[in-house]
Write a structure and sequence with these properties.
Low-confidence stretches of chain B: 501-508
Number of helices of chain A: 11
Radius of gyration of chain B: 22 Å
Shape of chain B: globular
Number of domains of chain A: 2
Number of helices of chain B: 23
Shape of chain A: globular
Number of strands of chain B: 2
Number of domains of chain B: 1
Strand content of chain B: under 5%
CATH class of the largest domain in chain A: Alpha Beta
Distance between the termini of chain A: 57 Å
CATH topology of the largest domain in chain A: D-Maltodextrin-Binding Protein, domain 2
Mean pLDDT of chain A: 84
Mean pLDDT of chain B: 80
Strand order of the largest sheet of chain A: 2-1-3-10-4-11
Strand order of the largest sheet of chain B: 1-2
Oligomer: heterodimer
Radius of gyration of chain A: 23 Å
């Protein structure tokens, strides 16, 4: 008798658990130190805008801890916590091509207390790669773009190619031998590779791609000679370059990267029309009020002018590239067309 | 070599400063606590503490964060032994014999030996770290995708040993585990598979909720079903292991250290592989392999040593290439970057003082762990005397928190509950659970290794035999499997002859 009572209790416990926790996702913010302190920046005076933020904000990052969007977002979250006096907590919801985490965040209340970090991967790239994309890029409230990350083409240090022109020639002549690392069929690396190969006059469907578990894994595979080239961010390749295992050939950015002024751009070497890049911005669920958008933009602008923040950013080789809500939305819409075309060439559009 | 020795000595001098000692102790203590609470893993603890540590100078902060990391590795064994909850995958082998020991009233020695094994292996690991780090570069890179695939197949060959006499059931469970690992977004296609149209399923199954569900929940259900008294109302036994215990455990610790350390050098190799392998090796070396799973102290000492050696060795790929072997190390990597310490060979040259101080502090920290924890063993042991009616719900609560916090997702809690129910029936009908878990964890690495190898070889399977290291591993796998099956048949026969009935060997 006693045991059946215990079993019933366990069942009841689970039932209450399901009932209590389904529905909204609770933000896992720790207790705020000063939840009552109001935002110090100027609010729009004409409207009766409520004070924002008055409690902790959950900042959802759809990659695992340690990835570039995560490191940058943690820096921003740290700064914003101090500035607003409320905890801005980074929550990693990785996996599934960065899409499920974003969908979950977009499903939250549009009150500005759930914000999601986005990159091209879970906005324009997933749109381009799918005829029926999981995330409808037209619906979210885009807050602003904050960071920009340059991409660079790297090859093994023991290889014969000393500059990008030599490599371009070889790559065009030997599509059957070229193995490019990417971090997924739909990833910045895959798209950057496709765009570059297309730009030098090659047919992307002729080359082979090796999918790795992430940027640092791509660099490792390249250093070991398991693939021929990798398009990644500077940060992910820096350790291996310093170790003398791989070599930077050229960056696809418009200008040389300030931290690596010796690395030429593709454009300097006659490869033009490259637009695939990596940026990090923030979005909120559809219907998020304007005062939230305003508060974020105001705060981010103060943050970018803070020398202390810039110093922290330099440590991780990051760069701010601010875009306001409108421009950011436009950028994503423009990119959608670019990625749709590239995805078709790559043969990944499903 | 001599140079790194001098550097290490200098590191000790800096690490012994009061503030650095305090940080190591603090980290070790917080780490143990975090490890004891299932689910609240080192990764989340480090992530939470990175912003807090920004008031410290970089060296002190990293010393503390590293302390949390290896402290948690140690702490995880406590719940594994006393409550059969492996806080992480690597602790599963500790459950297999640690929990039966606790049930038999030998929880004290089990905890004691796990503390000693962890400390010894940790310290030996630091020594290895000091000497191997500089010459590691070439070795690590020779281990490419074909070698990883071969290593994974090798790891899977130990399924045979974990299935006891139910080899067919073992393979069935293994395949089920592999199917579970495939749920999510396909590696090369980028398309969702086996998700049945659910968005939550596209993230795949995280290993932590699956493990907690399969190991901890069935235990609670069983406890509720069978008895309402404490897990172990009998005597716990002396906290300090006897001389005989230490003698029996000495070689397992050394072997565990060697396995853990060398597998730890491989970038991206799961620590679980080393603990499972160590457990398997101990079973093979033992004169009484049929007694494994019933509370053999070697089965605790070996895997615990492997686990800690592995966590120390993991610092080598982390510091020299920035390759994290586990989620916790990935967060630590983020911490290093935020402090402006870009991992790589240059780190050893430019920030030599920092690197060697951290390494030396880990040596001291491991010693501290032992000093701090042996007296605390008594406290943990008292846990088992709490009546099950109280402890059961508390364990359930911890399980729910643990599975939620692994990815901050309610989906994972449902996964735990469902796997808990599944696990209960699997155990009842004697389906071995370890093969399922092993395949579910190693599946993605194996799949990626295979697909990457195919990209390298232009779809020729010969690549696995053309590369010397992978070829050797494959041959070893085949030999070992034949040996295991033969040995298993023999033991079974002997056991049947000895006891006159169909014995249950080695299945959990």
């Amino acid at each position: 008798m006693k045991k059946s009572i215990s079993l019933i209790l366990v069942v009841l416990l689970f039932v209450s658990l399901f009932a209590g926790c389904s529905g909204t996702t609770e933000s896992a913010a720790p207790e705020s130190t000063a939840p009552e302190s109001t935002a110090p920046e100027a609010e729009t005076p004409e409207s009766e805008a409520p004070a924002y933020p008055t409690r902790g904000i959950e900042l959802v990052v759809c990659v695992s801890a340690g990835g570039t969007p995560d490191i940058m977002s943690r820096l921003a979250a740290d700064w914003l916590s101090d500035y607003w006096g409320v905890p801005v907590t980074v929550t990693n919801k990785a996996g599934g091509g960065a899409i499920p985490g974003a969908l979950e965040a977009l499903d939250a209340e549009p009150d500005g207390y759930t914000v999601c970090a986005i990159t091209s991967q879970n906005s324009s790239q997933q749109h381009g790669a799918n005829t029926n994309p999981s995330i409808d890029v037209t619906t979210p409230t885009y807050l602003c773009r904050v960071f920009d990350v340059d991409l660079v083409l790297t090859v093994n240090a023991d290889s014969e190619w000393q500059d990008i022109t030599e490599f371009n020639e070889w790559a065009l002549a030997n599509p059957d031998k070229l193995i490019a690392a990417n971090t997924g069929a739909v990833s910045t690396a895959a798209f950057a590779t496709a765009e570059w190969y297309n730009a030098i006059g090659g047919d992307v469907s002729q080359i082979r791609m090796m999918t790795t578990s992430g940027g640092s894994d791509s660099a490792t595979q390249l250093a070991a000679g398991n693939c021929t080239m990798n398009f990644g961010d500077f940060g992910g390749s820096a350790s291996m370059v310093e170790a003398g295992k791989i070599r930077f050939l050229a960056t696809s950015a418009k200008e040389r990267n300030p931290f690596y002024p010796d690395v030429p751009t593709m454009e300097e070497n006659g490869v033009t029309g490259l637009s695939v890049g990596m940026w990090i911005g923030y979005m909120a669920p559809e219907g998020t009020p304007d005062y939230v958008v305003q508060a974020w933009n105001d705060a981010i602008n103060v943050m970018m002018d803070d020398p202390e923040f810039q110093e922290g950013l330099e440590n991780v080789r990051g760069r701010t590239a601010y875009m306001n809500s409108e421009d950011f939305r436009q950028l994503i819409m423009d990119e959608c067309d670019v990625y749709t075309e590239l995805a078709e060439k790559l043969g990944v559009r499903k | 070599m001599l140079e790194s020795f001098t550097m290490l000595m200098q590191g000790f001098a800096t690490a012994a400063s009061p503030m650095n000692l305090l940080m190591a102790a603090l980290g070790a203590l917080v780490g143990t606590l975090v490890g004891v609470l299932p689910g609240l893993g080192a990764a989340s603890a480090i992530a939470i503490l990175i912003p807090v540590t920004s008031v410290l100078e970089p060296t002190q902060a990293i010393i503390m964060l590293a302390g949390i990391y290896y402290g948690a590795q140690y702490g995880g064994s406590t719940t594994a032994i006393l409550l059969n909850i492996p806080g992480e995958t690597a602790s599963i082998p500790t459950c297999l014999d640690g929990y039966p020991m606790a049930k038999k009233g030998r929880g004290g020695p089990a905890l004691g030996i796990s503390a000693i094994a962890s400390c010894l292996a940790g310290m030996l690991g630091v020594v290895g770290l000091a000497f191997f780090a500089p010459i590691f570069a070439e070795y690590a890179l020779k281990f490419g995708p074909p070698e990883y695939f071969a290593l994974m197949i090798f790891s899977l060959s130990i399924i045979v040993n974990f299935s006891g006499e139910y080899i067919l059931k073992g393979f069935m469970m293994g395949i089920l585990g592999y199917v579970i690992s495939m749920v999510g977004v396909g590696i090369t296609s980028g398309l969702p598979r086996l998700t049945f149209g659910s968005v939550a399923m596209t993230r795949g199954f995280d290993s932590i909720p699956v493990i907690i569900g399969l190991f901890a929940l069935p235990e609670v259900f069983k406890g509720m079903e069978e008895k309402t008294v404490a897990i172990s109302s009998e005597k716990i036994g002396s906290i300090y292991p006897s001389i005989q215990d230490i003698k029996t455990s000495f070689w397992p610790i050394i072997r565990g250290w060697a396995i853990g350390f060398f597998l730890g050098l491989l970038p991206g190799c799961s620590p679980a592989v080393s603990t499972f392998m160590s457990y398997d090796v101990e079973k093979k070396c033992s004169k009484t392999p049929e007694l494994f799973g019933t509370g053999m102290i070697e089965g605790v000492a070996g895997p615990e040593a492997a686990n800690n050696a592995n966590s120390q060795a993991g610092f080598i790929p982390l510091l020299s290439f920035g390759i994290p072997a586990s989620p916790a190390l990935a967060v630590l990597l983020a911490g290093l970057m935020i402090y402006g310490l870009q991992p790589g060979p240059m780190l050893f040259q430019q920030q030599g003082g920092f690197v060697w101080t951290v390494i030396a502090s880990m040596f001291i920290g491991n010693l501290m762990l032992l000093v701090l924890n042996l007296p605390l063993v008594g406290l943990w042991v008292k846990l088992t005397r709490v009546p099950y009616g109280i402890l059961g719900p508390v364990i359930l609560f911890l399980c729910v928190i643990g599975s939620y916090s692994s990815r901050n997702s309610m989906f994972d809690v449902y996964v735990t509950v469902i796997f808990g129910i599944v696990g209960y029936f699997l155990q009842k009908y004697r389906f071995p659970i370890v093969p399922l878990v092993l395949c579910a964890i190693l599946g993605p690495t194996m799949e990626r290794g295979f697909i990457q190898s195919m990209a390298m070889s232009n779809d020729s399977l010969l690549i696995f035999f053309q590369r010397p290291i992978s070829c050797v591993i494959f041959i070893l796998t085949i030999l070992l499997s034949i040996f295991s099956i033969k040995a298993m048949r023999k033991t079974k026969k002997m056991a049947v002859e000895a006891s006159g009935e169909d014995a249950d060997i080695g299945s959990n």
